[in-house]
Backbone:
């Protein structure tokens, strides 16, 4: 036990004291926040100059109605300088196209009477890849059409706008006989953040176990270590030490995020509506540790099988595949967390750390399913721990020989004896 604790302490301190640990602890949240918020900020960034377009309408009423709607587009992050022209024919359309080609005009909206009757107009411009601009123009034309048609039917524009206004839908989750209002989008965001955090930390620190084994094996340090400690204690100590370092990093991220969000009144009011129960919060470290132990056992065995970093990278990709598959299955499970497919997928040990936790965040499953999932994870970890320790016992002292499946089976049989 003393040697095991010494290995855990060494692996833990060796990682948390490095610059790489400090840099990754700071850089990963910044990078994730940047990748999440930067595209949104750039997408809604107000343009320095307005887009100069021509609205070619069948009547001045149609054109002015569209122009009024586009005048309020600044709230959507874009601006339009609109000229209204009426009574244009195909020859005029060619001239507008030429002006756009020469850069004298950013675009034009072609909406003759027959196009409006068919509800199909054309926006021609040099750049039509800006989804925000296209969406603003589409909504402006639709609103203008509603206004003009309402006037023709004797309905005031205000009444027409009220008729087509969307209904605000508030979601409420019923759990254990209690109803609580929730923000569906906020709940999904929290589920995705926690799921990706679990995925990244399990992947990052699980791979580091394999890399650590390979480094010690290639430097022959293991030959010295094995004179005073058993291979099983060395492997378990390495797994637990690296796992403790990973959990430390997660705790730093969680406490840092809480320190930034809790002082904000707006954040507090939003958190009250996020469907994140105390059980889900308490389950995070549990599923993190179980998922980490499962994959770390695999990575330790992979590190013992190979003799170089290059071979290790090839095997590590195999260990990544179940995690990638779990991320791929995320949306079907999130949309229907209690469907038969979601239940069975969340019971698969390699998917369970991600998918079962995702179900708990979306909607708390029956407790027997959570208990069965944890039991299956524990049993699988025990099996992998035994198999990995046998592979580890023989593989860490094997040099210059590529491990094959028959060879690995011999190692397991030999170590058992």
Residues:
């Amino acid at each position: 036990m003393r040697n095991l604790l010494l290995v855990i302490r060494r692996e833990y301190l060796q990682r948390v004291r490095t610059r790489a640990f400090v840099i990754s602890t700071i850089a990963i949240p910044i990078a994730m926040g940047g990748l999440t918020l930067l595209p949104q900020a750039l997408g809604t960034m107000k343009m320095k100059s307005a887009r100069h377009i021509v609205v070619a309408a069948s009547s001045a009423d149609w054109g002015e109605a569209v122009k009024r709607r586009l005048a309020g587009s600044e709230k959507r992050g874009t601006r339009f300088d609109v000229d209204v022209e009426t009574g244009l024919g195909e020859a005029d359309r060619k001239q507008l196209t030429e002006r756009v080609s020469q850069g004298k005009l950013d675009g034009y909206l072609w909406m003759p009477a027959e196009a409006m009757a068919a509800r199909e107009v054309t926006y021609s411009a040099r750049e039509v890849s800006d989804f925000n601009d296209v969406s603003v123009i589409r909504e402006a034309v639709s609103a203008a059409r509603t206004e003009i048609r309402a006037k023709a039917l004797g309905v005031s524009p205000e009444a027409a706008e009220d008729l087509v206004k969307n209904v605000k839908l508030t979601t409420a989750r019923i759990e254990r006989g209690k109803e609580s209002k929730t923000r569906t989008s906020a709940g999904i965001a929290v589920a995705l953040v926690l799921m990706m955090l679990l995925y990244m930390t399990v992947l990052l620190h699980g791979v580091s176990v394999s890399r650590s084994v390979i480094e010690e094996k290639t430097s022959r340090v293991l030959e010295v270590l094995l004179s005073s400690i058993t291979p099983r204690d060395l492997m378990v100590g390495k797994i637990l030490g690296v796992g403790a370092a990973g959990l430390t990093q997660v705790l730093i991220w969680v406490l840092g995020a809480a320190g930034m969000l809790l002082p904000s009144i707006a954040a507090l009011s939003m958190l009250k509506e996020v469907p994140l129960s105390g059980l889900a919060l308490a389950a995070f470290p549990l599923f993190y540790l179980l998922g980490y132990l499962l994959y770390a056992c695999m990575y330790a065995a992979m590190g013992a099988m190979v003799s170089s970093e290059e071979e290790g990278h090839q095997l590590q990709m195999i260990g990544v595949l179940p995690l990638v598959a779990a991320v791929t299955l995320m949306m079907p499970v999130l949309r229907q967390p209690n469907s038969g497919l979601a239940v069975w997928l969340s019971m698969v040990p390699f998917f369970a750390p991600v998918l079962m936790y995702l179900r708990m965040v979306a909607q708390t499953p029956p407790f027997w399913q959570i208990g069965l999932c944890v039991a299956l994870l524990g049993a699988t970890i025990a099996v992998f721990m035994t198999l990995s320790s046998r592979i580890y016992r023989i593989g860490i002292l094997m040099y210059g020989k590529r491990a094959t499946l028959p060879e690995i089976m011999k190692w397991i049989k030999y170590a058992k004896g």
About this structure: The chain has two domains: 51-164, 186-416.
